[in-house]
C-alpha cells in the first residue's frame, strides 16, 4: 500500500471481501441488476492512525 501513496508510511493493512447485488435500475458505476462476488476493499493505516480506503474492485 505504501507504493500507492508515496507519502504513506502504512504499518497495517486490511482486506475485506464482499458479495452484493446491485439495484435493478442503474444508479451508479456498477452494472444494473448484477451480482458481484469477491469484491475486494483494501484499507491501510499507520500505527494508531485512521483507516484509509486505498483500492477496491476485483482482484
Textual characterization of the structure:
The mean pLDDT is 90. The protein has a 3-stranded antiparallel beta sheet, with no helix packed on it. The chain has 59 residues and is mainly β. Helices cover 0% and strands 46% of the residues. It has one domain (12-57).
Entry summary:
The protein is an all-beta fold and 59 residues long. It has no helices and 3 strands. It has one domain (12-57).
Write the layout of secondary structure elements.
Blueprint: E1 12-21, E2 35-45, E3 52-57
Question: Can you give the mean pLDDT?
Answer: 90
Nearest-angstrom radius of gyration?
Answer: 14 Å
* H/E element sequence: EEE
Q: How would you sum up the major sheet?
A: 3 strands, antiparallel
Coarse shape: elongated
Structural class: mainly beta
Question: How many H/I helices?
Answer: 0
Uncertain spans, ≥5 residues at pLDDT below 50? Answer: none
Number of strands: 3
* Proportion of helical residues: under 10%
Distance between the termini: 14 Å
What count of domains describes the coordinates? 1
Strand content: over 45%
Strand order of the largest sheet: 1-2-3
Amino acid at each position: 500500500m505504501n507504493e500507492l501513496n508515496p507519502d504513506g508510511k502504512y504499518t497495517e493493512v486490511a482486506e475485506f471481501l464482499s458479495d452484493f447485488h446491485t439495484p435493478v435500475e442503474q444508479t451508479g458505476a456498477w452494472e444494473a441488476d448484477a451480482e458481484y462476488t469477491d469484491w475486494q476493499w483494501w484499507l491501510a493505516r499507520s500505527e494508531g492512525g485512521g483507516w484509509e480506503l486505498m483500492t477496491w474492485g476485483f482482484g
